Amino acid sequence: MPRRAQEDTEPLLSSTHIDENGFGLFHWLLLVVCGWANASDAVEILCVSFLLPTARCDLHLTSADMGLLTASIFLGMMVGGYVWGYLADRRGRRSILVISLAVNGIFGAVASLAPSFWLFLLLRFFSGVGVGGSIPVIFSYFSEFQPRLRRGAMISALATFWMAGNILAAGVAWLVIPRTSLNAHWGWLNFQSWRLFVVLCSVPSLSSALIFRLFMPESPKFLMEARRETEALFVFQKMFKLNNRCATKPFPVPGLVIRSKDDEVKNRATSGSRCQQFNHQLKQALDPMKQLFVGPLASRSVVLLIIFFCISFGYYGLWMWFPELFKRAEDGGSPCTNVSRVQNSENESCYPVKTAVYMEGFVTAASNLPGNIFTILLMDRIGGKILLSVSLVASSMSVFIIYVVKTKAQSLIMSCVFSGVSVISWNALDVLGTELYPTQLRSSALGVFTGVGRVAAIMGNVVFGQLVDSNCAIPLLMVSALLLAGGLAALRLPQTKQTELT
Questions:
Q1: Regarding beta strands 184-185 and 190-191, do their DSSP bridges make them parallel or antiparallel, or are they unpaired?
Q2: Best label site of 47, 190, 288, 482, fewest CB within 10 Å?
C-alpha cells in the first residue's frame, strides 16, 4: 500500500502495495488454496498415465492409441491456455480460475462413463481445456499477492504442490485400480476400478473451484489495473487484518490513487458498427501476443518458447509413459531392450492387476520431494536462471542413463533421479515466467508459453506411442537432446532474483 494516498508520483503497481501489508496468515492460507488447485491440475493430467496399463484392455488400445489418449489432454490445454490467459488479464484471475477448474473437474468425471475410446478421448480433451486455463492463471494470481523478498520461495512452495498432486494420483491409483472388487456391471457399461479412479481424480478440481468461488478475493494488482480501487482497498484491508490479527495498529492507508489519463484512453470502449467492434475485440485479443514479441520483451519470449517446448516434450513425453514402461519391465531387464516381451504385451491380460507398477509410480512421484525442498531453500539465493539451466542439463544426463541401463532396478533409480532433478526445472520456470512480464501481460504470456508446451507434450506422447514398440531408443535420445538444448538456452534469460513485479 502507498504510504500517503495523495502521492501520485509513486509507481502505480509497485510491490510496496503488497509489502506494507506484511507477511503472515493470509499468505499461508493462500498457499494452501492455490496449492490444492495446482495439485488438482497435476492429478487430472497424470491420471491417464496410471490407468493405461489396465484401461488398454477395456478400451482395446494399441500403443498408438495410448499415445493419442495421453496427448488429448495437452491438446485441450493448448486451446485453453491462451484463451483463459487472455480472459484472466481482462476479466479477472479469480472468476476464470473458478470456471476453468469447474470445466476440468466436470469433464474429467464424465469421462469415467465413456464406453468407447473415442468418446473417452473427446472428454479428456475438454478436461484439458479447463486445465489449460487454471495452470497459468494460478501462478499469476498467487504471485501478485507476494512480497518481493519472499516471492521466489513462495512460488517455489506453490510449485511443490504439483508433487503432492502427483503423489496423490499415484497413491489413489495404487489403492483403487488393483481392487477388482470395486468393479460394477451396469448393463451398457462395465464400470471397472480404473473408472472409479477417474472419478476420484476429478474431486480436487471441483473442490478447488468451490473454494475459490466462496472464499478467495480477486488479485489486488488486477483490481488496481482495472481501476477498481475500492475493491482493491478492501482486499488489502483483509490481508492486513489477517496478517496483523494479534497487533493493535490500525490499517495505515485510507485510499488509493492509481490511475492516469493514459489508462482512460487505453481502456475506452470502442463505438461503431458490430463489425468494427468485433475487429477491435479481435485486435485486443491478439495484442498481448504481439507485445510479447516486440521491443525489450522479444528476446526473453523467444528463449522461453524454446525452453517450454524442450522441457514439455521431454518431461511429459517420458513421464506419461513411466507406468507403461514399468509394466513392460515387470519381469526384469530394461523396457527398451526386451523387444520380444514388448511385442507380446498387447496379447497379455490386464487382470489380475500387477500392483508393483503402481508402487513404482508412487516411488517415482515421491522422489520429487528433494528437488522441491532444494528450490524452496535456494530459489531466492541463487535465482531461477541458474537453477533452470543446471537442472535441465542434469535432467538430460539422467534420461541418457535411463537409455543405457540394463536392469529394472537401475531404470527405477534413474527414473527417480530424473523426477527429482526435473522438478527443479519446472519450479524455476514457474518463478521466471511470473517475474519476466508485467501485470497486464502476465497471464497471457504464461498462457502462450504453456500453449507451446502443450504442442510439445502432444508431439512427445505421439512420438512415444509410435516408436515405443519398435525403437524405444529414439524417443529417449530425443528427450535427452531437447533437455540439453533447453538448459543451454536458459543461459540467455535475464536474472530476475528478488526483482519487483511491474
A1: antiparallel
A2: 190
H, E, C per residue of 197-266: HHHHHHHHHHHHHHHHHHHCCCCHHHHHHCCCHHHHHHHHHHHHHHHCCCCCCCCCCCCCCCCCHHHHHH
Which tens digits make up the pLDDT trace of 280-316? 655 665 666 677 777 778 888 888 889 999 998 988 8
- Name the residue type at position 240: F
Residue 118 grid cell: 473415442
Q: Model-level pTM?
A: 0.72
- Give the length of the chain: 502
Distance CA(312)–CA(233), nearest Å, equals 39
Q: What is the CA radius of gyration of the chain?
A: 23
Q: Which residues contact 264 (CB under 8 A, 6 or more apart)?
A: none
- Residue 110, Cβ density class (10 Å: 0-12 exposed, 13-18 middle, ≥19 buried): middle
**pLDDT tens profile 392-451:** 999 999 888 877 777 777 778 888 898 889 889 988 887 887 778 777 777 677 777 877
Residue corresponding to grid cell 520380444: 340
Q: Which cell numbers in the block locate residue 416?
A: 527417480
| Helical (H) or strand (E) element with 459 | helix 439-467
C-beta separation of 176 from 49 below 8 A: no
Q: How far apart are CA 257 and CA 204, in angstroms?
A: 39
Angle at 224 between CA 220 and CA 226, to 5 degrees: 115
Q: What are phi and psi of 471, to 5 degrees?
A: -155, 85
Dist CA 482 CA 48 (whole Å): 24
Contact yes or no for 54/194 (Cβ under 8 A): yes
